[in-house]
Specification:
Strand content: under 5%
Distance between the termini: 57 Å
Largest sheet: none
Number of helices: 7
Number of domains: 2
Order of helices and strands: HHHHHHH
Structural class: mainly alpha
Shape: globular
């Protein structure tokens, strides 16, 4: 009888538990972004500057506005194009900063690039979920949305980081010969079946990272 009542209670409260879990994840991501912003602001002050002293582009914000009318497009353009670009550019920027002699900011950028993997992985997870609910193939939907919203994929690509985040390679790097198409599609099918497991691992790592409140020394 106790098991029956427990089952009824769990069933009744399950939507609330799922909602609270999603809200908790959103709050966690917000805290992580605030932590990164704090690191950068601190370093600017150390160098004698403040936020707004230097020009910065607003590409990410413009892309957010352009894709705000379509959830699938937003997930394709922001996490899987713009944030994924951070996977490619991050390590190169770290090397440039080391060359300039600023090891402190290079470590901060390295940490940001490392945590970007989780951001991309979460975006991919939700993009796949949306495509599933719409009954559409993720790979062709992704490419169609990039064409519709004029979102450009630029190399060179960091294949290792993109693979860790779970993005199938043929989504962003077209094979050079038709003989490779079948192999890539087969590999893509296998990769998609592993995405959910990969995302769970990455999110667990992100939660561990959230316990690090101090900037890299």
């Amino acid at each position: 009888m106790q098991l029956i009542w427990l089952g009824i209670l769990l069933f009744d409260f399950l939507p609330i538990v799922i909602f609270l879990g999603r809200v908790s994840l959103l709050i966690l991501l917000m805290l992580l972004m605030m932590r990164v912003a704090t690191w950068c602001l601190q370093r600017l002050v150390e160098l004698g500057f403040k936020y707004g002293d230097m020009p910065a582009h607003s590409l990410l914000w413009r892309e957010c506005e352009r894709s705000s009318d379509n959830v699938a497009a937003h997930l394709a353009v922001i996490p899987l194009v713009q944030e994924a670009r951070g996977l490619d550019a991050g390590p190169r920027l770290v090397q440039k900063l080391v060359g300039f002699g600023d090891n402190r900011i290079s470590k901060i950028v390295a940490k940001i690039a490392e945590e970007e993997v989780a951001h991309v992985a979460v975006g991919l997870y939700w993009f796949l979920s949306v495509c599933q609910k719409m009954g559409q193939a993720p790979d062709s939907t992704f490419k169609d949305l990039l064409t519709e919203y004029n979102a450009e994929l630029k190399g060179p690509f960091n294949y290792a980081a993109r693979e860790e985040a779970g993005i199938p390679r043929d989504w962003y790097d077209a094979p050079s010969t038709s003989n490779q198409d079948k192999k890539v599609k087969d590999d893509n099918k296998k990769q998609l079946s592993e995405v959910y497991e990969r995302v769970a691992t990455v999110i667990a790592m992100e939660r561990e990272n959230s316990s690090l409140t101090r900037p890299p020394e």
